[in-house]
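Continuing the series of single-chain predictions for the mutant panel. This is the parent chain; the variants come on the following pages.
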Amino acid sequence: MIERAGIDAAEVEDVIAGCVQQFGPQGINVARNAWLHEGLPIETAAATVDRQCGSAQQAVGFGAALIGCGVHDVVIGAGVEHMGDLPLSAIDRTQEEFGPAYTPELLSHHNMVGQGLGAEMIAERWEIPRSELDELALRSHRLAHRATVEGRFEREMVAIDVGGETPMTDQGIRPDTSLEALAALKPVFKEDGRITAGNASQISDGAAAVLLMSAEKAAELGLRPRARIVDQTTVGCDPVTMLEGRSRRRGRSSRATG
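Parent structure:
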């Protein structure tokens, strides 16, 4: 990203990265480790944040806030998750060894469940049939494939060597799937449920970064901004049906966390 922007890495004052599984290769401040891995200036600070599924977005939000209040002029907001190496089940293994994250008091307030069962609860509450979930999944794959063929993602992709290969497309897109194929999949969280491997989010690996700076600094460096962050907000929601969070405050869109 620094090479693409054509800036001196020393201009970056802080790096904030979102990451949920902060242990193993992603532990001990993966944002700072990634920066140092590249041999970049040690004077640049870095921090890793966790707001679960909104972690990378929160990293960008924190970076924008630091610039907006005048603390920094140049910040990188990023996110990384290597679920192929650190799957959700890794959390269970660490808690078996070191203890659970949820206290008895917390569980007395909220009957915490995994995202899969939370999604099932939402589907039941809003009476969303399995067929509609499959149709939405199929539409998502088709739109993503069309955007790929049209080259809409090319500018955003960075080639990285993975086992001797350099994939340049999102490998999670399945253009050949069909409603018939999706309908044949069995539910994975409840025997009579609606959530399957075809209409649920995938286990994916990926990383992204955004260069943020004040308008004055961009002008000084001769860079053309691609977007402007106008406002941001957050809102909490029921931690059991954690995927249901949504809000509109004074006409502003928001993200939510369980």
